């Protein structure tokens, strides 16, 4: 059985994973889903990685999953721990030396969002949570946290991508990141064809079983 290390995205918390955790644990796996210290203005990307590594402890058979902004932290964790598989879920794939704040322009994401008409969607219930049950969406928004400005302004520190199997999952109905944009970015930056799942940006809340199926399948490849 594996330990799934689940890293949340920007302004979020480990709570976002609770339905997926229940699904994975029902199948005999272990999960770790810490809150990153992102609400601390002094915290940087290294501090994010330290928090995850401390939560993992001496566990092994690790599958690290980074959602959205969590993709800046997940490879840092995978570079320091004996990780079997690294998974980016609608993840902001970083490049060496790239600042998270600059990622939107350097990747062309802002242009892609404008072209797809997504920039005009201001209601988070439509952009992030359009397929999430309303009570879960409201609870998720209630738990929103500030994001450290230091982390956003720091260059991503790795010189090369960690040498281990890396998977990317595109959310086909994502209204925040265009699916085609992520298909292209995964090929360009990682050299891989991504897997895909139906649903919007927050599939851990809207489709936890389907997401668990996909993640568990990586253990068998």
Characterise the protein shown here.
It is built from 11 helices and 6 strands. It has 221 residues and is α/β, with parallel strands linked by helices. Helix 1 (18-26) links the parallel strand 1 and strand 2. Helix 1 (18-26) packs across helix 11 (208-217). It is globular. The model has no long low-confidence stretch (mean pLDDT 97).
Could you list some keywords that capture this structure?
6-stranded parallel beta sheet; alpha/beta; 221 residues; 11 helices
Secondary structure elements and pairings:
Elements: E1 3-7, H1 18-26, E2 30-32, H2 45-56, E3 62-67, H3 74-78, E4 83-89, H4 100-106, H5 109-115, H6 124-127, H7 134-142, H8 149-153, E5 166-171, H9 179-190, E6 195-197, H10 203-206, H11 208-217
Parallel strand pairs: 1-2, 1-3, 3-4, 4-5, 5-6
Q: What summary fits the major beta sheet?
A: 6 strands, parallel
Strand segment tally: 6
Number of helices: 11
Question: End-to-end span in angstroms?
Answer: 14 Å
Radius of gyration, taken over Cα atoms and rounded to an integer in Å: 16 Å
Which word captures the global form?
globular
User: How much is the average pLDDT?
Assistant: 97
Measured by DSSP, the beta-strand proportion falls in 5-15%
Strand pairing plus helix content: what structural class? alpha/beta
- Which residues form runs of ≥5 with pLDDT under 50? none
Instruction: Estimate the helix proportion, in percent.
Output: 25-40%
